[in-house]
Amino acid sequence: MVVDPCPSRHRSLGRRRGIPAATLVLLTLGVAAGLGGLAGMSARAAQSPAGKAPRPGAAAARTFALQVAGGSGAGDYPAHALVHVWADPPPDGSIFDRWTGDLEPLIDRYAAHTTLVMPAAKVTLRAVFKRAATCLPQNETLSGIEVTRCFPERHSGVIFLFHGGEGTGASFFFWTEPRQFVADAAAAGFALIAFDSVDREHRTWQLKAQGDNPDLQHVRAVLAAFLGRRLIARGEPVYALGAGSGGNFAARVAQSLPCKAAAIFFVPGFLPAGYAVPTIWLMAQNEVRGQPQALAAYTRLLHDQVPAKFEINDASPVFQQRFHRIRGVDPEQSRAIYAFLKEKRYLDAGDMLAQDPETSGWETALPERFAKLRGGIREQLDVCFALARFYSDFDTRILDFFNEHR
């Protein structure tokens, strides 16, 4: 298991290898009983994939064309099939804006990776990109600890980023998925500050809610320094986002400062007593260990009438241009990496990963010409298999949630 440092898309309540649907439903009912329902939970729970398989000898189902301009996923599909579509990587200086075209069957027009339930008709989609503010990461040492920041020319909110147990703050600006979140957040008018934990030997965060917590003290010192240098305006809203152990620490920061809202990846957050910060959880389907506790924390906030959302990223197909998003990988190289995975049967007939990529052995079989890309490929496969790896699929949801709480 790797914890990356740095309206819902695929929620199908355990459609593939995660918590079985019945189990998660029972968990939901158990923790939410008497709490008024799960109003903030992902809306995709009601989705269903394609219908029953045809009987042997039955006539092939009629198919309908899906055309995708500026993205992937085009093909011919039967009615009611659940289909993934992806926007191409944005041109330099741009970000994905929205989908246009036949939007009725599309689940989320503002997500670069989304799904649609194929109607009994032709569908045409086009990915639209827009010019966006960019910012270059800058590193500096404050109070003896490294801080990496990215400040667009104009910003009206600040997001504090906290890495997982194996990482550094700078990793948010290196790995493909968190780097995409940084780009999307900067384009939406947020400044970003990524912290290293004080404990550099174990790279873990202190979780004391108050008192002599050196990590909380460092966060406050950095905030005071940037306020003093007028890089952050007085009264500018501050948000906390963390992955893995950084997610648990983000909850401490959110309560202590306090922050306007928090985003927690993969973990429950172990919310301190009296916690009342609007919070969005971002879980992964095949990282099941923290899901029941996170779901309980989410429903507790709902019970206390604190705004909360709960999103689960499901496993998704590996499409031919998946690896083009890795810095330095062109479309031809991406197709070659896909062809290797397909030929070696690491992908099934539907291009889903046939096994957990952390144990399937694909790395030892990887051709030498791709050896330098191993880390980037691993990141993408972990996301596709829905492991505990930071993913950018729900960037818009996180940023919308933050913007709702200012």
Write the layout of secondary structure elements.
Layout: H1 21-32, E1 63-69, E2 71-72, E3 75-78, E4 82-87, E5 94-101, E6 113-117, E7 123-131, E8 138-142, E9 145-150, E10 158-162, H2 176-187, E11 191-195, H3 214-228, E12 238-243, H4 245-256, E13 261-265, E14 279-284, H5 291-303, E15 308-313, H6 331-343, H7 362-365, H8 374-384, H9 395-403
Parallel strand pairs: 1-7, 10-11, 10-12, 12-13, 13-14, 14-15
Antiparallel strand pairs: 1-3, 2-4, 4-6, 5-7, 8-9, 9-11
Helix pairs in contact: 1-5
Task: Give your account of this protein's structure.
The chain is α/β, with parallel strands linked by helices and about 400 residues long. It has a domain of about 70 residues. Helices cover about 25% and strands about 20% of the residues. It has 9 helices and 15 strands. It is globular, with a radius of gyration of 21 Å. The two termini are about 35 Å apart. The N terminus is likely disordered.
Order of helices and strands: HEEEEEEEEEEHEHEHEEHEHHHH
| First-last Cα distance | 35 Å
Main sheet specs: 8 strands, mixed
Structural class: alpha/beta
Order of adjacent strands in the largest pleated sheet: 8-9-11-10-12-13-14-15
Number of strands: 15
Nearest-integer average pLDDT: 87
Helical residue percent band: 10-25%
Brief overview:
The chain has 406 residues and is of the alpha/beta class. It has nine helices and 15 strands. β10 (158-162), α2 (176-187) and β11 (191-195) form a beta-alpha-beta unit.
